[in-house]
Design brief:
Length: 109
């Protein structure tokens, strides 16, 4: 059983590495800087799951591009994973507290 889990974990990592390997070193650096700048202003939400999310660097451009001035936004990544993007208005508010990178939430039926 452990070998199956390890196999799937490694295959997921190789897929991620392959996808990121298609990016130039300059683009990877640019996206890592963007990730750092966006830190605390978005949240990956795992729904009914305790899995660790695997996120491609290109998602950070999408987060930046989808942020609205006044409306909170979500990007659906899968049935149990989405990204919450608060509006500019919310994150610029004096009462805004930085968000945790990952949140595990239970759906309500």
């Amino acid at each position: 059983m452990k070998s199956y889990v390890l196999f799937f974990m490694l295959s997921g990592l190789s897929t991620l590495s392959s996808a990121q390997a298609d990016l130039s070193a300059d683009k990877v650096h640019e996206l890592q800087e963007l990730k750092s700048n966006l830190e605390g202003t978005f949240q990956i939400q795992m729904i009914d799951s305790r899995a660790l999310p695997t996120i491609q660097l290109s998602l950070f451009e999408e987060i930046q591009n989808k942020r609205s001035q006044t409306d909170d936004t979500f990007i659906e990544l899968s049935a149990n994973c989405r990204v919450f993007i608060p509006s500019f208005q919310e994150i610029e508010s004096s009462s805004f507290d930085p968000l945790e990178y990952v949140s595990y939430i239970q759906s309500t039926f």
